[in-house]
Amino acid sequence: MPSSAQTRTAQTKNGFTPKTCPVCGRPFEWRKKWAANWPNVVYCSEKCRRA
What we know:
This protein has helices spanning about 5, 45-50; strands at about 20, 25-30. It is an alpha+beta fold. The chain has one domain (about 10-50). It is globular, with a radius of gyration of 14 Å.
């Protein structure tokens, strides 16, 4: 039987996987204000979006 560490995926906050910002390279997680648009969220902040 495989251990739970081998079968787990990286998921946090309501089951959404973390994303990485293409500008700064930092990982960011789901936020309530992005709930309706999470599949289209690319940047971690407005500052990175404008860069």
